[in-house]
From TrEMBL:
Region forming the signal peptide: 1-20
Main localization (coarse): other
UniProt similarity note: Belongs to the bacterial solute-binding protein 5 family.
Subcellular localization: Cell envelope
Entry keyword annotation includes Nucleus: no
Taxonomic lineage of the native organism: Bacteria, Bacillati, Actinomycetota, Actinomycetes, Kitasatosporales
Top-level lineage group: Bacteria
Keywords recorded for this protein, A-Z: Signal, Transport
Any Pfam family the entry gives: SBP_bac_5
Name recorded for this polypeptide: ABC transporter substrate-binding protein
Keyword Disulfide bond (UniProt): no
């Protein structure tokens, strides 16, 4: 197979003309030949998660990447970087100086894919529904600053907020704020299964086998009105059991593009091959990985145990052994490229030290070795996860202070168990809902946090998070954000490990790959087209 590597800088738009010249016109082919995209994301309906695609429930990058193609939001993140822009809305903005009243006007003539008009009442219904259902995924917490939603006529929607929230426009760009048709989505219960309707750029036909969506067929929605230019008529997303099977399909030409989650070995191989049938596009990413703790569990209830783990773990060695240049050590929940980032864990613990870790445990009268099981998911964050946890286990055990086992579980079992508090220590990843420091902190530390964590710090929740949200200039929020990160480094309810880059591999007649993913790992299928190989 021929391959070449295209590495994009932080502002991916700068290289768009180069990519267009290499892969053909970005205007789309206009034929009925579907572009086929591979993924290792699994889409399963189960007793614990019967409604994987309901916007009021879905809260992981895989399901959100389905929803973003089909369910329209008032705002949307732009194709490159920057603040969100109107999408289903014609215009939106704060109407007061305190960032507590936010008003939107819908586009004229907006319709659902079935032809029904989209009205302000539908927006209110969708938001109120998500808030009232309070799905156990915790996604409703993104809308927690909303007090009431008011409508004026068919096109005006006004959000009255409980407190100032400069990040609110970002939150209206997330799928939980997606506009649904009240005829299809009951008010008092989630919509089970894989049926999905909206007013977004595509309609969805789900191919389901044994309660799992194995193929998602996206067809251009003729009723769509919004800011997006749809460069193709049809895209199919195929779910593979693992990265090797996905890679084989790309090599055979059964798929045109593959994205998350490629294996580290696949990326290294694609990067090193200089031929030209497949382009590997490297993009800046905001994905992070971390360990979460059930701080009520006896084995890690003592802060000293969690601090000792933070003191022992060698992030640089972990990244080097498993991911190489594809990731970087992370010393805060907030990635290094995001405004407000602070290296709080490095500032507190410095380089890894068994001596310092032993001192922390001795001072707290903790008997060693501390016995722990580190839980990880086998099929959600990519094939490098198992090796990552083997390295973590070996680092902790070699200190003599811990006796650690590891256990892998499929995501559809792992996630419900984690939310129920069944794991003392567990590995998680985070793809931001939007690229702001608030979204790397509040989802883990605020009330109704996504982890279901019992950890609560009143200063973070009652003072620092609200304080940071009052600052429209996010640089001005840095003091509050740094204080939050310093508290997390001291209490260690979570232990950040690394942040990663993101990649797309595509056959070279596929255009638009530079924008296939944005910085929040949103899959933008509308950007893809089919051009001329070369």
């Amino acid at each position: 197979m021929n391959r070449k590597t295209l590495v994009l800088p932080a502002v991916v738009g700068l290289l768009a003309p180069v990519l267009a010249a290499c892969g053909g016109s970005g205007s789309g082919s206009g034929d009925s030949d579907a572009i086929v995209v591979g993924t290792t994301d699994r889409f399963t309906a189960s007793k614990d998660a019967p409604a994987p695609l309901d916007p009021a429930y879905a809260y992981d990058v895989g399901t959100w990447n389905v929803l973003r193609q089909t369910v329209q939001t008032l705002m949307i993140q732009p194709r490159g970087e920057g603040e969100p822009v109107p999408e289903a809305a014609e215009r939106c903005g704060f109407t007061d100086t305190g960032n507590e009243r936010y008003a939107c006007t819908l586009r004229d003539g907006l319709k659902f894919a079935n032809g029904d008009p989209v009205t302000a009442a539908d927006v209110k219904y969708s938001i109120d529904r998500a808030l009232s259902l309070k799905a156990d995924s915790g996604v409703f917490a993104l809308l927690s600053t909303i007090d009431t939603v008011e409508t004026q006529g068919d096109r005006e929607v006004i959000f009255h907020l409980k407190t100032a929230d400069a990040t609110f426009p970002y939150k209206l760009s997330t799928p939980v704020a997606g506009i649904v048709d009240p005829d299809d989505y009951p008010k008092n219960k989630l919509r089970d299964g894989f049926d999905l309707e909206g007013s977004g750029p595509y309609t969805l036909k789900a191919v389901v086998e044994n309660d799992e969506m194995v193929r998602a067929e996206f067809t251009k929605n003729p009723e769509y009105k919004g800011t997006l230019k749809v460069n193709n008529d049809k895209v199919e997303m195929v779910s593979f059991k693992d990265a090797d099977a996905m890679g084989e399909a790309l090599e055979k030409g059964d798929i045109d593009l593959m994205t998350r989650a490629m294996s580290p070995d696949q990326i290294r191989k694609l990067s090193g091959d200089a031929d030209t049938e497949v382009d590997l596009v490297e993009m800046p990413g905001l994905e992070i990985r971390y360990l979460g703790f059930n701080t009520d569990a006896p084995s890690v209830k003592s802060k000293a145990v969690r601090q000792a783990m933070a003191q022992v773990v060698n992030r640089s060695a972990l990244v080097a052994k498993v991911y190489g240049s594809q990731a970087e050590p992370l010393y805060s929940l907030v990635p290094a490229s995001v405004t407000g980032h602070s290296n709080s864990f490095f500032n507190k613990y410095g380089e890894p030290s068994v001596t310092k870790a032993r001192s922390l445990l001795n001072q707290a009268n903790v008997t060693t070795p501390v016995k722990l099981t580190l839980h990880y998911t086998t099929d959600h964050y990519g094939p490098g996860t198992k090796k990552e946890f083997e390295v973590l286990r070996d680092q902790l055990n070699s200190s003599g202070l811990f006796e650690v086992d590891i256990k892998g579980t499929p995501w559809n079992t792992f996630r419900p168990a984690e939310k129920k508090g069944e794991y003392d220590v567990y590995g998680m990843g985070w793809f931001p809902d939007f690229p702001d420091a608030d979204n790397f902190l509040a989802p883990f530390l605020d009330k109704d946090n996504t982890l279901g964590s019992p950890y609560a710090n009143s200063r973070i929740r009652n003072t620092l998070i609200p304080e940071s949200r009052r600052e429209a200039d996010r640089l001005s929020a840095s003091t509050s954000l740094t204080d939050i990160q310093d508290i997390v480094a001291s209490d260690v309810p979570v232990l950040p490990l690394w942040q990663g880059k993101q990649y797309v591999a595509a056959r070279d007649d596929i255009t638009g790959t530079a924008y296939a993913l944005n910085s929040s790992s949103t899959l933008q299928l509308w950007e893809l087209g089919r051009g001329v190989s070369g």
